[in-house]
Amino acid sequence: MTTTELPANMAEAISRTKQELRARIGDVAGAFAGVRDRMRREVDAVATDPAAFPVVRFRDIAEGAVPHRTLGAVRRRGCAVVRGTFAPETAEAWDAELAAYLADNDFAGTYQGPADDVFAGLASGQPQIYPVYWSKPQIQARQHEHMVAVRRFLNSFWRHESEGRVWFDPDRDTAYPDRIRRRAPGSASLGLSAHTDSGSVERWLLPAYQRVFRHVFDGDWRAYDPWDGAYRTEVDEYPSTVMCSAFRTFQGWTALSEMRRGDGVLHVVPIPSAIVYVLLRALQDDIPGDDLCGAVNGQALPVDDKYHDDDLLPALTSIPDVEPGDTVWWHGDVVHAVADGTNPDRWGSVMYIPASPHCAKNAAYAEQCGRAFLAGKSPGDFAPEDYERTWTGRATVDDLTAVGRDQLGL
C-alpha cells in the first residue's frame, strides 16, 4: 500500500484549500444554511423514530426476505443491528476460547501498555481493547458464511458502479483484521467522544476525497449521495497510527456477550448525510483560516458542540440491547461515540469486524494482512506490537477455508 505524503506545512495547506473550496462553492453561507435546516429536521425526526437504530433478522437476510420498510430504515439511518448473525452458543464459545487464548499466552504478564490513543483512559492496568488479531475465533467469525452473507447484504446498499466505473465488488470479501474488546464486569469505561473515522483533514485536503464529496464542493449539496462508492476506493489517508488502508462500507462488531444500553455502548448520529454539515461547517466565516473544526491529522474527526453548535449531537442514539451472536454496523461516515458506563455484572466482549468489499485498494491491504497473519504480526494499520508471533493456539493456514484464504490474499 502507498500512503499520501503529508504537506510540509499543514496549517498553510488547510488555509489554501479552504480558500479554494469556498471559491468553488460560491455561496458558502447559503449552502450551509440549507444543510443546517435539513439536519435540524433530521435530528428532530430521529427523536420520534422507533427505528432510529434499525434491527434486521439474519434469518430474513439468509432467505432474501428483509421487509422493504426495514431496508428503507437502514438506508435512511446508515446503521443496523443484525439479530442472530451467529448462534448465541457459538458466540459464547468464541468468547471463552478468546479468554483462554489470552490466559494461556500470559497476555496480562506481557502487556506493554497502550500503544495508541484508542487505549487511553479506557481502563487501568489492563486494556479493554486488546491488540489481538489472529485467534481462531476471529478467523472463524471473519470467514463464516453468515458473516459473508451479512456483509454482502450491507454492501448492497451502496452504488458500486457509477461515474462510468465499477468501484468494488459487493459480493466478494476482503479481510480487515481488527482487535477485540473485553470489558470485565464492574469495570468503568470513559467512552469515546463523538467522531467519524477513515479520514480527518483528508476529507477536505485530498483530491480523491474532494471527488467523493464533489457535489458538496461544487455547490450542489442536495445531489450528494452518501451511498455512492465513487472515488472512495481511491482515497489514501495521511500516515498515522489511526489511518485506515481499506474502504469500509460499514464499520462493525460482533457481540460475544450480552450488552445493555447503560453498559457504555455505541451511540450513533443515524444520519449518513450529516458529513455534509461537518464539511461545510469548517468553511464558514467564524472558523479561522487554518482550522477545520478541530480536525487534526492522526486523530479521528471530532464532532462537538464547540464547532457544531449542538446541531447533530442531540441525535446520538444508543444501539438496542444486544445478545451474543448479534452484529452491529454503521456507515463509514456516520458520527458515532461510546458512552461512559459500567457493565455491572456481565462481560462486555466484542470482535471488531467491518465490511470491506473487494477492490484493488482493499485487496492490496489484505495481502499485507495475509503476510502478517503468517508471521503472527500486527496488521499494518495498527501499532506493531506483534504479541502473537510466539503464541500457542494461534490460527494457521490450516484453519482457513477457501473464503478465508481469499480474504487474506492467500
Task: Give me the secondary-structure topology.
Blueprint: H1 10-25, H2 28-47, E1 55-57, H3 58-63, H4 68-77, E2 79-83, H5 88-104, H6 107-110, E3 129-130, H7 136-143, H8 145-155, E4 161-162, E5 165-166, E6 169-173, E7 180-183, E8 188-189, E9 192-196, H9 202-205, H10 207-212, H11 214-217, E10 250-255, E11 266-268, H12 274-281, E12 301-302, H13 305-308, E13 317-318, E14 327-331, E15 336-338, E16 341-342, E17 348-352, E18 357-358, H14 360-375, H15 402-407
Helix pairs in contact: 2-12
Characterise this structure:
- The protein is an alpha+beta fold and 410 residues long.
- The protein has a single domain, classed as Jelly Rolls (Sandwich).
- Helices cover 34% and strands 15% of the residues.
- The protein is built from 15 helices and 18 strands.
- Helix 2 runs antiparallel to helix 12.
- The protein is globular, with a radius of gyration of 21 Å.
- The two termini are 17 Å apart.
Properties at a glance:
alpha+beta, 15% strand, 410 residues, 15 helices
